[in-house]
Known about the structure:
Elements lengths: L3 H66 L5 H21 L8 H4 L7 H12 L5 H20 L8 H23 L14 H23 L1 H23 L1
Amino acid sequence: MTTPRSNEVDAQIERAREVMARISQDYRGQAQQTVKRVRRRARSALQRVILIAVANAAILIAAMVTGLILPGGIGIFGALAAMLLMLAVTLTIALAPAARAPTPAKLAQVDIKALPAQTERWLEAQRPLLPAPAVQLVDRIGQRLDTLSPQLAGVDNDTAEAMEVRRLIGEQLPAFLRDYERVPEPLRRVERNGRTPDAQLVDGLKLIEQEIGDMTQRLAQADLDSLSTRGRFLEMKYREEKAE
């Protein structure tokens, strides 16, 4: 026989499990976002290394061809010039700034299929400007965008669904963060109308994350309905046939 006390204990255990599951999910999401950032940087570094190798190989080939054409070869000074040119090219490529994140104006115009990835790149550039709780939400929004991206593969730019997605992640999200970043840093932790700008930022990002999740579910509704219908058909056709 269960007692009110045992029911209360069971409820507390269930709440603790939900909290642990949510923490575990958040941790996995942050780890996935970290892995993505590391892979992105590694890919960028590899591209630079390949570009340096190709450029230096071209310089060496040009020096060799020049040496074969000239009667006395390129000589010591020519070899030194080639080495200096290779060093200059290597430093230029290695120290060149990374590709810039898209601007909010670009996000408002980018093709809907590329919008989640471009928005995630833009969010990555905003991380250093945000407080820690907001950074965690940005990581979760990045997860949502990863899930949303395949859903937009078959969506045209002029559909209602595309315009809804563009308004949220291509216009409202950048405008919201831009408004926060305009607030002077010392005022971001000062209460105004009962809340600080930092708290308003976190609450707004939570709403945006939830809405992106809802959008993903709405876009997947037809596929979910098709899967459910197919499952019922298979159950009726094969399970009931075996039962007869």
